Every structure is written in C-alpha cells, then in structure tokens.
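Q: Joint fold for the lines below.
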Amino acid sequence: MSKLVIKADNISKRYMLGTIGSGSLRRDMQNWWSSSFLNNDKTDIDNPLGKTDSKDQIWALKDINLEIKEGETWGIVGSNGAGKSTFLKILSRIIKPTSGSIKGRGRISSLLEVGTGFHSELTGRENIFISGHILGMKKAEIQQKFDEIVEFSGVENFLDTPVKRYSSGMYVRLAFAVAAHLEPDILIIDEVLAVGDAEFQKKCLGKMNDASTQKGRTIIFVSHNLQAVSNLCSNAIWLDKGSMRESGPSKTVINSYLNATFSKKWKHEVTDIKLAPGNENIRVTYIELIPHLANPYDVIDIRTPLTIKFRFYNANDNICLSTDLLLFTSMGDCIFDVPSKPTIYNRGFVEGECTIPGNFLNDGSFYFTLHFSKDTSIELFSFDNCLMFDIADYRENSNWYDKWWGYVRPNFPLLLNPVGENNLLK
Amino acid sequence: MKGHASKELWDWEIRPETPWFSTSLKELFQYKDLIIQLVRKDFLGSYQQTLLGPFWVLLQPLLTVLIYVLVFNKFIGISTGSTPPFLFNLIGITLWGLFSETFLQLSKTFSQNIEIFSKVYFPRVIVAISSLSLQIILFGIQLLLLCCAYSYFAATGIVDFNFARIFLIFPAIVVTAGIAFGGGLIFSVLTAKYRDLLPLLHMLIRLLMFVCPIFYSVAMVPENIQWVVKINPLSSQFELFRYSFLGSGTVEVPELLYSGGFMIIIVLLGTLLFNKMSDRLMDVL
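A: Joint structure:
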C-alpha cells in the first residue's frame, strides 16, 4: 500500500468582499493589534454566534478533506469560481487557509502559469536558469537537464536572444520546457495547457503522463479540458461553490459533473391541449429526447444513439401534412433537416419518432426544431428550439486532446494500404 | 500539537496562522542558488539596452559629486576645511547611495514581485536578501572608486591615511545597510497595502538626506540645532565613515551605540513584520 503524501483536513478559505481592510491605517492597526496580540478575532466579538455578515464575505473553499497517496494523479474539476485555483494556491503555499491544515511529504512544485519569473530582457539561456531556480530546481539539476530542456522547447537557435523578441509560441514552449523538467515529488498544475498549439499540448500531456506512470510522481491537475483530466488522472474531485461535491475515480466524477452542469431540455409534455405550444392548426403535446444509455445517470457522449419521440394534435381534416426535424448547433448552423413523407391526415393525434445513430454527431451543444407544413411548402407551425442537449466527448486510445473539428463525427472507415515504392511509377 | 500524538511523520504542514519567525536559516541556505540567480537577474536585467551599461554604477556617484561640489561648495560656499570638496562629497555620497538604494529597492519587494509571489512559493525574504546583496555589490564597486580617489589624495599627502582607522568603515557600512534593510522590509509591507506610500517614501528619503551629514559635517551645524541631525541614527555612522578616511569628524560613542541599537531593533522588527505579513498580503494584492 502506498503511503499518503498529502492529507488536507477541513480546508476553508474566506475572502472579504469589497475593500479589503477598513481602508484606514488607524483602524487596520487596531484590528491587527487586537487579532494578533489579544488573540480575539474582531468579527467574533461583533457576532457572538460566530456568524459574520454574509454580504461581506465569501467562502471560496469550505471544509475540503482530501487524502492523496503517492503516485496518484488527481484532477480537479468544477465550473468557474468553484474554488479550484484557490485550492491549488493553498496547496502550493501561496496563500494560507482560513482554517484547517494540510500535511504532506516530499518536495512540492507548483505550475500555476507558464513563464513564472521570466525576465523579458534576458536571453533564453539566462531565463532557463532563473525560472528553474524560482520553480525550485537546484543548479546542478538545471545544468544536467539543460540540453534536454532546450531540445524539448525547440528554440536552440534563439537561446542567446532576449525572450522579449520571441514569438509568443516560442516563449510558451521555452517556459513549459523548464517546468516540464521539474522533478518534484508532487506536481501541481493549473490550466497551463490552455496555451500553445495542439501539437505542443500533446507533448506536454505526454510528458506529464510519463511523470506519473513511469516515475511515480503525484500530480494534481486542474483543467477545463475534461478529456485531458479523464485521460490523465485516475482520480478526481469536483468542487462546486467551494464545497466538495464528489471525489473518486475520475470517470465517475466527471460524469456526475457533466450531468449536473450541462444544459438540458429533454422533454416537453402538456396534458391540457389548450396550453400546448402551437396554433389553431397544430398543438404539440409531447416531445422527448431519449438517449440510449445503459445507466440513466450516464452522460450522452458521441457514441450514444438518440431517439426523439413526439405527439401532436392536428386540428384539420383531410390535410396533406409533413413534419421536419431540424438539428442546429449552438451557433445556429443547421446540421440536418429530416422530413417525414407527406401524407393525408384527418383531425386527431399523430405520433412520430426518429432515431439518430451513435457515432454520428460530434461533441457540443445542439438543439432541435420541429417544423410542420401543409402540402410540403406552407408552414403551419414551427416549434423552435424545442429540445436542447449536449454531447460529451469520448475518445479511446487517443493522444489528441484538442477540440475535434466538425459538427459531425461519423466513423466511416478510412483505410490505408501500403502499396510499395515502385507502384508509384505505374 | 496533535500531530505529535500520531505516529505519522510529515515533512511539512500548512496551517492558517503564520508564526512570527517561520523561516529558518537552514531553509534560507537551501535557497542560496536562487539568491544568486535573482541578484544576477536584477543586475543583468537593469543594464540591458543601455548605452553605458554597468558603467552607470560608477558614473552615477561621479556625476552627483560633480553637482554637489558645484552647488554646495562653489555656489553656496560650504567649506570642507582642508579636505578637497570632491573627496569629502564622494565619501558621503557613496555611503548614502548604499542606504537610499537599498531602502528604496527593498520597499518595492512586494509591489514589484507580485507576479512571481502569486504563482510560486519560496520564502519571500529571499527576494529582500537578494536585493540587499545586489546593493552591497554595487556599493562595493563604488567603494573601489572611492578608494582610488582616496589613494590619490593620500599619496599626494593632502589627506591623512591611517591603516588601523580605515577598518572603521566596516561597522559604519554594516549599520547603515542594516537600517536600510529593516526599514525597507517595514515599508515593503506598508507600500503593498497602501500604494500611495511609495511617493511618500521617495520624499522621506530626500528629507532624510538633508538631516544626514553627507555634504556637511555635524561640526558645521550650529549647536542649537545639532540635535535635529543627531536624532537621525544614520548621522553618527556617516561621521564614523568619514572619520575612518579623513581622521576628522564628530564621533561619539553614545551616538554610535544609539545608532547600533536602532539598527538591531529595526532589523528585528522588519524581519518579523515581513515574515508575519507576507502570507496575509497575498490576499490583498
């Protein structure tokens, strides 16, 4: 059994809103005096119950408990403002928690941005040393890895040029190269992969993967790129408004996170026909999106087939009616328009169903519109944006973490055959 | 304290409160490479894309002396006695350069390094120590210039050189640098919290310069207002510094003790305050 390397007990962090401090030197001095020497927190005197005015403060983190074992990789997910960065800053000793404690073993390095400590006037070579030292490397360590760092960054020819003349890409590559060669026992990484091109991102994630799988380092990683988190991290915690909503295996946590945050409008059902959306011709009483999921709490990903069922009331007799199911992206581009065969109907309810196979749509946000027409051209009613859903990404054995291009992602077979060298001439 | 009860051993622990003295000398020693790098960075960084580069270190006191000699000695007519005005002023300016630059650079510790401080942890006092080291190195270079000028005047017999006396410059340097260090640390915390204190600080330094015997000696000040100069703990050190070179000046032991005691107190106060506040300032900045 591997040993614990980090143990966080009831970590909380409170921030005061508005002007920090009272704004006057004299009152700050008084507060400071009473809280430092007389050991009484002023807020506690004002409020004997210990409740300070909730308008003036915000708990960025509340009672976080976490145990991390050696060699584990942890991802932290959560929406903006959930306290992810605050947590990392506390772990990396930049800010102090308001209460609670963290105990740990081993050397810890944090990578909260790329290029920490870079001096724009100095050359690449100088900056490798400066940044390396600031991030906690020893001189011998940097000298030993210098060539490796230069090679990884790919800026050999510009090593003696001030970094202010670098392109932003080169700057980032050099900065990350230094950071990637850190060899602490625990590495903390915040969203650094948001920079650089896809090729470089891949290289960085690969490097991080090596560090955890081959060298047994503990990694704590925050990213909005859930694909990267789920591929790289074995465990994850989900922070929501400062509290820990869930922790455990990364796939499970990410699923719950996606389920809770993705926008959903999967079903419309109206029992009273007069209130149903529509007009004097058409009333839609029911429409539902039914994903084919093994477990109802799973997330719709690109592999999931989707069935749309609907029922509407047709108020006219002897009418040539057809419906169109239109799918739009969140940007408003139409992906497809599937029509039904125009048929003569009499007054009454009509039901419809359509299934979109799995492995067809790409990940993203989509919405449906249901369109009714008479004689295939005269619009009767258009039920705009009636269903909204998100499709999560899913990739197997892929080292590509960037957004997959396109609105659709069909897996048509693309076959390559080696044909030898000489066949070219024929 | 509960941690001791359990058998588990931890390398480090993060707690909400900051002790007054958390950074051990051993920890600082581990960061010696970083100190060297920061000094290098500041030194190299400040002379990139300049015409004269590091020569400014020598040029600056020389130009200042030139102006002082012109204004104070030629125009106003302050007498420097048998000492050449050039040497007299250079002695004062060299030591004053150490004080004012160290004080000013240190008081910017937080406001200038916030980018780094908010992204990576190391004992914050490292930056202060590296600023101090750089200033001492620059002072060393200027001191060499002073020694060159001094040897010329000593060789020509204009000033009186005494081998034992010259070593008195070291206590003067240590105390002056110490006061600048302690004061700089205190102001680094204050300017981080109250930004408008930085221009005020510039003014304070300029005022301090006039109550410091740089281009005059304490003996020239009328007796009834001498206390204004003597209340400045730097004054006796400047007199001592000049005495060690020229053999003239008002050097009194009680004043030196007052000055030394002041230094010890301000260094302690500055270090403790800096250490205590450095974590808390991160929430403010």
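Q: Anything notable?
A: The CA atoms of residues 24 and 30 of chain B lie 10 Å apart. Chain B is about 70% helix and 0% strand.
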